[in-house]
Every structure is written in C-alpha cells, then in structure tokens.
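Practice record 12: protein with iron/sulfur cluster.
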Amino acid sequence: MTQAHILNFVAPLQRRPRLARLGDWMARHRRAILAAQWVIVVFYLALVALPAFLPHPHPEARLFSSDFGASSAIDANRCAIGEQSPTDKAAYAACWRDRLVLLAQYLFWGVWWPFVILSVMLMGRVWCGVLCPEGALTEFASRHGRGGHIPKWLRWSGWPVVAFVLTTVYGQLVSVYDYPQAALLILGGSTAAAVAVGWLYGRGKRVWCRYLCPVSGVFALLARLAPIHFHVDRAAWSAHPHRTAAVDCAPLLDVKHLKGGAQCHACGRCSGYRDAVSLAARSPNAEILGTGLGSDKPRSGEAVLLMFGMLGVAIGAFQWTVSPWFVKGKQAAAEWLVAHDILWPLADSPAWWLLTRYPEVGDVFSWLDGAAILAWISIYAMVLGGFAWLMVRAAARLAGVDWRRLALGLVPLAGIGLFLGLSMMSVTHLRAEGVPLGWLPPLRAVLLAIGLLWSTWLGWQLLKVPAGVGAGGAAARRLAHLVWLLPLSAVGAIWWLAFFVW
Ligand code: SF4
C-alpha cells in the first residue's frame, strides 16, 4: 500500500476522537516509525552483540561507582582517573569496559524485557508492530527475499508453545541472563532465524512473527488485557462507497474480521481504512470476557501455553535460583550418586553453549546441575501447570462453560507473574549497586494481590452458567468458582514463598 493510498483512506482528522487520531497519525507517518525501528535495530544489535566480544566484568565491577555506596575499593580505584601511569590507564579502560557490559546486561534484562511485558498489557502489541527489531528485520528481509509460499508445517499452531518452552529452558541451562555469549547465541540465533524465514517466505510480511516467534503466543495472551485496540466497524467497512487497495497487514490478518488485539501488532497501518478502523479504548476485560464485538475464539494451544508455559515453565525458570528446596534436592542427588559410586554426572560441562561453563569466573555447571534444572522446571510445568489445567477443566465442566475461555481468566495473574519474574533480574542489578530496596516487598505484594484479585473476578464472570446448561445454576457456579480459586491460590503461594520466605 502506497503513501497515496494511506492518505486516501484516512478520514479527516478533526472528526475523529483523540485516540483514533493517534492511530491515523501512525498510518500517515510510516517513515517516522520505520526510522525509529532502525534506530532500535542498531541499539538492539549493539546490546546483544557487543558485550559478547568483551571480557567478563571484574567480580567487583559495578555500574555506578559510588552513588549508592556499594562500590568496592577495587572498583572505585580502577575507575578513578589517577596518576595515568600505564597500569592506571589499563585499569581505567577495564573499568569502563566492564561498565559497558554491565550496562548492556542491565538495560537488556533489567529494563527492556520487563517493560516490554508491561507495555503489551497496557498498550497491546505496539512493541511488535512499532518497535520490535526482530519484526523490522524479518519484514525487511521479506520485502527483498524470494517471496515463497508459506509451508503448511510452518503454520502449525503449536510452534509458539514449543518455541517458548525450548528457549526458556535452554536459556536457563546456559545462564542467558548472566553471560552475553549465551544471550548472543539465543537472541542472535532467533534474529538470524527471523531474517531467514522473512527472506524465504511471504512478500513484505512478518511470517516469523505470526507463526514462529517464541514470545508471540505469550504476547497474544497478554494483549487481550490491553485497554486500547484497533477497532473495526464492519458495517462502515461494508458501506464504504469506494474501492480501496488491500491493507498491508504485516502479520497477515483478516482485518475486516479482526475482533481483538491478540494477533494485531498495533502497527497502525490500517487506521482509518474505509472509514472503519480506528484506535479505540475498551475495557481491559472485554476481550477475555468476549463482550462487545467479542474476541477470537480462544484455542487449546493458547490455554496450554498459558497454564503449562507461563504458569509452569516460566515460574519454574524464575524460581530455581532462589529456592532452598532446589539446593537441598541437588545435594541429596549428589550424595546418592557418590554413595553409589556414579561420578560422571558430577563432571563439568564440556562447553558453554551446552551447559554454563565459565571457569574464568568460577561458574561451571555439572551434568547434575543441568539435570536438576531440567527436573525442577519439568516438575513446575507438570505439577503447577497440570494442576491449573485440571482445575480449570473441572470448573468449566461444573459450570458448563468453554474451558479455553475460562482459562483466559488466568491471564492477569500469569502476566503480572511474568513481569515480577523478569524484574527479579532488575532487582539483582539494583541490589548489586546498593540501591535501597525497602519499597520492593510492598510493591511486589500489591502487584501480586492485583493479579490474584483480577483473575478471581474474571473467573467469577466467566463462570456464568449459560441459560439451559447446568442444572445446578447458581450453586454450580459457586462450586466451580471455589475450584477455580485453587490454582490461583497455588500460584500465589509459590510467588509468596519466592519473594517473602526463601
Ligand atoms: S490489523 Fe494489521 S495493519 Fe491493522 S494495526 Fe493490526 S497489525 Fe497493523
């Protein structure tokens, strides 16, 4: 779609509400958005690639030398501009090199990821459509690639679940949050795959983002909570008197039948199209409850990703580092192995890309470490995810409602949990810098309470017994809600342990 086409279908600005005008602005200013995307691409590549080629930071290195009083004497000395002897100069250069690596880690894991999650919950997938560097690169490759048909295997709806689980688990095994080499391998590998898929399939589309991106499934779930979305007025669409060029929707959506924000990347390209599409406010519960225009029917894959992926695998991945149970279990396994003279599982990892191996900083996983992490995450997925799945199925059956729709009531709790889990990395960095964190426990408790109460309320709404279904009526609904509260309590208790007990 050309600029002329865009200008043609965007309705006169003065007649539209403010939010709709913002969407129209996005449609009119594609070049500005593209320029911002390329700035972020450069920033992202620098954050991911540069630190991987620099030495590991000194164990005493800090990002801020003295502002919070946490800097060691070694670090303060290294970073002070001293006598400028050759030794001083080398220490000074090493100090700033270390700070660069720490800054990249802090920005990438401490700021970037937690706030991307938050942004999707608050603004829909604006991140995907406007800011994501991987999306920009895959679309660029697709515009200049061979433009092949999208194969059937690539459209398989299970990819978002598989990709999310594999990248999350592998990331833990190679300590992706701690080592830039591991981050480059996983994120750089994902970006290279996105470019390759873009080059191979589709014409100027985001085939990677639609079908394969490891976080697309999670973002689709979280975007259902966003209080803004691109609304399509189908009657106005059909009544539009003129022929119009097709919308250039990069994630390949059927825009006319768009019902919500789950799959929409909020890129704004269709804003004003046929006087029917506009950025609009809505209740953050509308898409979960299916009110108003309704929402796309939730699929089993989404419910599985939500319960086994976001509540199971992700929470397990966040918590093994802080759990004393993990340490005790691993020690017991090690003692049992030694007692039975089975020593090979205690051997060191042979390569950093297989299991964490950084002997220069004294961090080397054994095979037992790797197996313990895998077992821990699997137990969380099976026990917590499986329990949530069973309870949701049971509650839905009692009330006679669709279990996939009911499962969506867990999205607020899962989304807030994801934000809290990712922000654990931010907290680690802030703690190392000596930032006072007295405000953190109450903030965590409040966020957790919001997630629990929101999901509790959504469950009650979603368990409305349909007319003519479920003979028990109100009693069945109350009983189903009690069952619904069980997985919520389990998730709340697990987070409570991690934040306030361990
Ligand atoms: S429907 Fe497509 S073109 Fe319209 S805002 Fe969403 S992603 Fe962009």
